[in-house]
Design goal:
42 helices; globular; 18 strands; five-stranded parallel β-sheet; about 5% strand; three-stranded antiparallel β-sheet; alpha/beta
Length: about 950
Amino acid sequence: MGGLRIAVLGPLRAWRGQRELETGSAQQRAVLAALALRRGRVASSAELVQDVWGAHPPASAPAALRNHVSRLRTALETGSGAPEVLVSRAGGYALRLNARALDVAEAEELGAEAAAARARGDLASATRLLSRAEGLWDGAPLTGVPGEYAERHRDRLSEYRLVLTETRLELELHLGLHARAVTELTALADEHPLREGLRALQMVALYRCGRQGEALAAFAAARRLLAEELGVDPGPALAGLHQRILEADPALSAPSSLPSPPEAASPPAGERTGEQAGSGGQTRPAWPRPAQLPPDTPDFTGREEEVAGVSAALVGGAPGRGTAPVVCMIHGMGGVGKTALAVHAAHAVRDRFPGGQLYADLRGAGREAVDPYDVQELFLRALGVAPGSVPRDRDERTALYRSWLADRRLLLLLDNAADTRQVEALLPGTSGSAVLVTSRNPLIFLPAAGRTVLEPLSERDARSLLERIVGADRCRREPQATQDLVHACGMLPLAVRIVGTRLAARPRWSLSFVASRLGDPGQRLSELESGDLAVEHVFRLGYSALDADQARAFRLLAIPEITDVSSAVAAAVLQCEPRAAEAVLDDLAHVGLLEPGDPGRYRYHDLLRLFARHRTLESDDPEVRREALSRTAGFHLSGMVAALRAEWPHSRLPAAAERQDLPGGPVLPDASHAQQWVINELGAMLAVAGQIIDHPHRPVGTQDTRTLASLLVLLMPYTDLCLPWNVLEGQARTLLDAASRHGESTAEVFCCVVAAIACARTGRHDEARGLALRALETPGPPQQLLAHRLVHVMGMVAAVRPGGLEEAITHFRRGQAMSRRIGEFGVAAQCEFGLVRAYLADDRPQEALEAARDALASCLEAESPACAALARRALGEALAALGRHAEAMAEYHEALELCEAGGMRTQHAHTLLSCASALTDAGRLDEARPFARQALAALAELGDGAGEQRARAILDHT
């Protein structure tokens, strides 16, 4: 039980220590929720069946329940002995948890501590405890958990949170924090309009903020809604409060004995606040303390860590922390929420700056940034300097500006800065004040005490934001549409807000209707517009500031379907040197149009990629766009040539595919780097190939046919990487038609080889045989170069045909001899691996062992660690078949070390599976189980369904 925690106040999640546990399918999570919420009490099997499947469960429900319990035990228990967490008791089950292991229990305990603090008069502590309790919620309770039991508790837990929030807001009013509470109260009262207690607190907060008219309007709205919805009048308490506001009851005033914020009692010399004494001892109105912050966003969502970090950095400017002002920097792409975060954080700490708050939009995203010296004048006038007293000379104006800021505790929010120069002109000259800067540019030369790189919201926070704008009930009714909407918005706060406001204004629209409109990439940006808000407008501001070369790069690099843009790919597309390409990419990242990733790699946000593609349709000819894809495919082919030369140095295949007109490829110094590059780029290679092959208006040209056929055939030595065979076959068949049309015999043979191997791998052996024979019958150098590979394919086909093992062995032996004769030791090893599998299938383990030893020798000749790892695994399988399990495990461990050293994740996972299988066969079940679990996790991450099934079968057996 130690270290186990379960959360139900949001998505159902479980952890042991810092490691999150797998909670399984929706029904499995429903079982876990039903047990967790009973808090140790026994639930009978019948109760759990009804909780999960309802009053009319299927006949298979009891068996399914037992399976779910078994899988939960696998996830929750730590030892292999009797269950200690999910225990069986008297025909049912119980979940044994420590006191605060369930977040609901922790919330209730904090609520009880808050009640005790309130009872002894410690309202501040009670407020903090209630805030901590509220913070345990992470969206709607039991999100994604089905069943009536979960639905009942979802409503109960949502109600409990609302009670905590209402109590905390009431305490904040007792503490005089009405200005802070009023925004939240207004939002909650609107979300729960029939809740008279919330409406009453909202009215008091508005009244104490000097907004008597709004308080009375809130009552009128409540009275009208109660009459329309329920046909009743407000209760006596709400009606009485309305009357007291009309009468300006003094008892409604905010508490007067509040602690003063730091320095508020004695502002520095020259500070003009409140009222000041005039001649004759009379008072006269003073210049108001500036309070220029924009209103906080009522539905600000998420960003807890960023808010805390920015707030902590801003208040670090207290006396004794040096002589320089504190500067905090927030940067990120347009629409990511920089201003909203800055304003929210500034409001959170505004009471720490009694001199006031100054705000300016520096308009740095476009070409017309604000002159900082004009902002100096605006700030000076806000501080009380007469317009005629502001010097025209910039140096004199700066000197006066810094003199007025000296010895004050001011908070400056400089929004949307263009560059460091613009900000530096507005920095105070002394400590005491703090400056918060937002920009799309990171302003790397700005001396900032804290830097926050703002990224799009997490999916959870994006959903929460949409729920707060649209209403949680609407989102809960359409969970899939909610997910589709936030994904279509790329989790960009501006886009989510636009979608939310459109839905809020159209209550009859379903979320799925809007999601379907956003599903068309060609129309998505035009849909993301509402009133003055438009994603495309925000992007255009940054795009308009680019020079011609930067704009061209931004457009063209968005065309290929690649996740990351490396400087090498950019150099190929833009036809320039890698250093020049890196400089352009860096420029685009500096203005927030690309997101920097690993060194030398950048990526587009999904919506920015759409925006760039719209611009290229406007600005670039179709031939220019086609060439961008062709050059990307050419770069991938150069990379595959380099990878094969590094990993299979004796292979003649790269020479057959290489061409003089290809762009430069990546530098791959050894086999490990080569395989990792292929793994990383595989998705991009196939995506770009698909863009060229599947273009709706343009058939594949001759040059692209050569490039792509060569690219696909060079992937064939990497059959151990879980290649997507269906995709490869489809692309190869389309290219085969193009090669025939263009009279490209080399490309035709290459495509036959790829399609044949793909068919063999997916069990369509007659088609594989026909394609292989077609390639073998095509005369010329390509056929001669690939004959040994085609013979290997023939062996693969025969091996799976009933009664075909002897034919397969013949083909594999022939392919082995052909490959060794021409120095293709990697293909020789593949033929020998085929022999190992064929001999094992024919119950000839001794011959399988000899073939595995031959394979190891071939791999050593091929100088390929990946091949050697496969050979070690083949040796282990042959030894295990002979019952020599200790020797088999030694070979497997050798293979695992090779895989770990070379970063070969797929081979590593399958070798773990072989270890588990050998230990199971040897009867060493306790030792087999950890290997099977590791293999299952790795294979699930790789998406290898067949491997997962084998691992689960071993775990079920053990």
